[in-house]
Hints:
The protein is α+β, with helices and mostly antiparallel strands. It is built from five helices and twelve strands. The chain has helices at 5-20, 74-86, 127-133, 165-170, 214-220; strands at 36-41, 49-52, 58-61, 65-68, 95-101, 105-111, 117-121, 141-148, 160-164, 185-190, 193-196, 204-207. The strands form four sheets. The chain has a five-stranded mixed sheet with strand order 7-6-10-8-9. Strands 2-1-5 form a three-stranded antiparallel sheet, with helices on one face. A two-stranded antiparallel ribbon has the order 3-4.
Amino acid sequence: MIKNVGAIFLAVLLAAAICAGPSPAAEDYVVGKGDILKITVYDHPDLETIVRVEGGGTISFPLIGQVRVGGLTVSQIADELAGRLADGYLVNPQLGVFVQEFRSRKATIMGKVKKPGLYELHGQTTFLELLSKTGGLAPEAGDRAFIKRKPDRTGVEGKVVVVDLKRLIEKGDTSLDVAIMDGDSIFVSEAGVFYITGEVKKPDAYKLEGGMTVIKAITVAGGFTDDAARDRVIVV
């Protein structure tokens, strides 16, 4: 069950991410119209370029002219430029490509969060960072979040990424803190619920966890009262 301790872990994980600097997932960022790139070539300061991605997804780079970069990741752009420069211009060129300014990007998060809605993504944004903008998980949130990617340029349906919230938030497995992309739709599932009434100390509705048994359910409800008939527990 994700209790208040989850909020504490969430704060700790976010603080750790800030202290650690940019996420390695930044290399997986897909460049698009409006992004401003800073491109450096090792040992060739004269080729350093700061350029905005144009409407057609292209940039202009010294020596090689127009290059289509829209829809490519930062690492793919570095490889593309290096390949073209190596074709008659430089020997074994080493490039660095950085997103100096991100275009306006948005993602939607719905389901069991405190403030669902459409959010702007400023810079490289991970799932935990977006979750913090919503105020965190609602009390009835389940153990899974589903991230649906938008279709690619060819119209192929985007994949669905499943995030195990229990492992990410309670156990601190930051490998599950995936980067959020422009156009992502995130849905946080609702937990199953069971009800326990009668001669227990805290009759109520409770969040259903994996592996729940009758004995565990009674324990969650505070145990039997003195008047309970322990040999007559009924499951409906």
